[in-house]
């Protein structure tokens, strides 16, 4: 989907509905705008149900201040206008009150911007604007001042968050990515102190060092077409289930020995299409296409494990919280499903996925099909896409249950004897492991 080809009122409606669907705004909260080339501001209306918005509801405010449309413009128009005056490079603004970011705003804190490299890559530095009465020029002045210092995302004290960008889709990506990162940070805070990345560690993530050589793709086999379709399905499903964000999560599927399909670098997980998927053959990428930054890691895992056919990485906020603190390890002996689906879940140190992918690949085995990549992602392997997907989903559900249990009492994991009984029943061919 070419989002940038939609007219402004369609873009605004689409993103407001996405915010609502993803649970990032309420019926009454949040407002979005686009600064048009002619100087007019297209903005969401005041007092209209945000869960049922249509393009006809959007208001266009001309440079002379006249409003065109069937509703009044959002009461927060003043701060949108002030940001556009302050930052001509910002062409679109997304404002909402998502719960994790509001939690930070309630205690006067800014969420950690370097919890994962993705957060920093998408959001950059984060600004802070002190409280002022909604809809006033004073609020506009404080927010514009915070944007004036350079950040593209600004936290509003006792209020919410504002994200800006040169396109509406990018502004939405920033808000959504920071909200998920904030959820991860809050989950981790219940476990112990978080360990954010350093500037140098974040720099390891950069995509453009050393791109793979290219090959010219010929006629596509039916297996390849089938694979592209299957990857698109699983990515959209992961996004709808909030296991992936718009900007985070990778899926690959092996076609033959050193031949696989993988999701591209930088794409929106909701709008992905079959033609976006990149084929990687013998270490070469399809001509002109950029595969995910995880391409070398996926290739190393396929090379070391002939039985692995699919890999999925994602950053869901419950399980990832165990990867941003060292306080509590993630224990898989929770309920039978967790142990049967995930087995043991080792942790790979941050950066190895870029600098030593073969080392990370060595951590994968039949007893360890899922890894936690520190400050980065959960990585699940499988013999089918559905198996890899299920492993990510089970990891997230199990971690969410574990986090919730902490408010109730001390964890009582399954006993060693019960784990041995599970092994004997579900994995009878394995040698009993020394525990
Ligand atoms: Zn607001």
Please describe what this structure looks like.
- The protein is of the alpha+beta class and 435 residues long.
- The chain has two domains: 3-189, Class II aldolase/adducin N-terminal domain (L-fuculose-1-phosphate Aldolase), CATH 3.40.225; 214-426, Class II aldolase/adducin N-terminal domain (L-fuculose-1-phosphate Aldolase, 3-Layer(aba) Sandwich).
- It is 36% helix and 16% strand.
- A nine-stranded mixed sheet has the order 9-13-12-11-10-14-17-16-15, sandwiched between helices. An eight-stranded mixed sheet has the order 4-3-2-1-5-8-7-6, sandwiched between helices.
- Helix 5 (137-148) links the parallel strand 6 (126-129) and strand 7.
- Helix 1 (8-21) runs parallel beside helix 6 (168-189) and helix 4 packs antiparallel against helix 6.
- It is globular, with a radius of gyration of 23 Å.
- The mean pLDDT is 94.
- Bound molecules: zinc ion (ZN).
- Zinc ion binds next to loops.
Summarize it.
The chain is an alpha+beta fold and 435 residues long. Helices cover 36% and strands 16% of the residues. The chain has 14 helices and 17 strands.
Q: How confident is the prediction overall: mean pLDDT?
A: 94
What is the distance, rounded to the nearest whole angstrom, between the alpha carbons of the first and last residues?
A: 51 Å
CATH superfamily of the largest domain: Class II aldolase/adducin N-terminal domain
Oligomer: single chain
The tally of beta strands, per DSSP, is: 17
Global outline = globular
Q: What kind of sheet is the major sheet?
A: 9 strands, mixed
Which radius of gyration do the C-alpha atoms yield? 23 Å
Please tell me the total number of domains: 2
Low-confidence stretches: none
> Helicity level, as a percent range?
25-40%
Lateral strand order in the biggest sheet: 9-13-12-11-10-14-17-16-15
Count of helix runs: 14
In CATH, the architecture of the largest domain is: 3-Layer(aba) Sandwich
Bound ligand species: zinc ion
Secondary-structure-derived class: alpha+beta
């Amino acid at each position: 989907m070419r989002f940038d080809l939609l007219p402004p009122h369609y873009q605004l409606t689409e993103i407001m509905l996405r915010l609502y669907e993803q649970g990032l705004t309420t019926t009454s909260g949040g407002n979005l705008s686009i600064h048009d080339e002619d100087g007019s501001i297209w903005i969401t209306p005041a007092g209209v149900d945000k869960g049922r918005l249509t393009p006809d509801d959007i208001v266009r405010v001309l440079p002379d201040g006249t409003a065109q449309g069937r509703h009044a413009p959002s009461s927060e128009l003043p701060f949108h206008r002030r940001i556009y005056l302050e930052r001509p490079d910002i062409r679109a603004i997304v404002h909402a009150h998502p719960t994790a970011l509001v939690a930070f705003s309630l205690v006067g804190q800014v969420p950690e911007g370097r919890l994962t490299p993705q957060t920093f890559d998408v959001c950059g530095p984060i600004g802070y604007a002190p409280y002022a009465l909604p809809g006033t020029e004073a609020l506009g002045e404080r927010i514009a001042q915070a944007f004036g210092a350079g950040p593209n995302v600004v936290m509003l004290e006792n209020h919410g968050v504002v994200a800006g960008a040169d396109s509406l889709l990018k502004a939405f990506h920033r808000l959504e990515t920071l909200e998920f990162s904030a959820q991860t940070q809050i989950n981790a805070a219940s476990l112990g102190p978080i360990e954010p990345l350093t500037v140098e560690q974040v720099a390891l993530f950069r995509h453009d060092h050393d791109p793979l050589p290219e090959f010219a793709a010929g006629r596509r086999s039916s297996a390849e077409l089938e694979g592209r379709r299957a990857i698109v399905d699983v990515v959209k499903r992961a996004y709808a289930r909030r296991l992936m964000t718009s900007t985070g999560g990778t899926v690959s599927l092996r076609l033959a020995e050193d031949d696989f399909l993988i999701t591209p670098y930088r794409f929106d997980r909701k709008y992905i299409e079959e033609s976006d998927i990149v084929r990687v053959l013998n270490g070469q990428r399809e001509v002109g296409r950029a595969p995910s930054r995880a391409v070398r890691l996926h290739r190393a895992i396929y090379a070391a494990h002939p039985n692995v056919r699919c890999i999925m990485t994602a950053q869901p906020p419950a399980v990832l919280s165990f990867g941003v603190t060292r306080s509590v390890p993630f224990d898989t002996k929770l309920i039978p499903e967790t142990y049967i689906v995930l087995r043991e879940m080792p942790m790979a140190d941050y950066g190895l996925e870029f600098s030593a992918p073969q080392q990370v690949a060595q951590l994968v085995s039949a007893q360890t099909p899922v890894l936690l990549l520190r400050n980065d992602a959960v990585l699940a392997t499988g013999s089918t896409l559905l198996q890899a997907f299920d492993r990510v989903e089970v990891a997230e559900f199990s971690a969410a249950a574990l986090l919730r249990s902490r408010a109730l009492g001390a964890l009582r994991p399954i006993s060693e004897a019960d784990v041995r009984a599970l092994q004997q029943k579900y994995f009878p061919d394995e040698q009993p492991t020394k525990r």
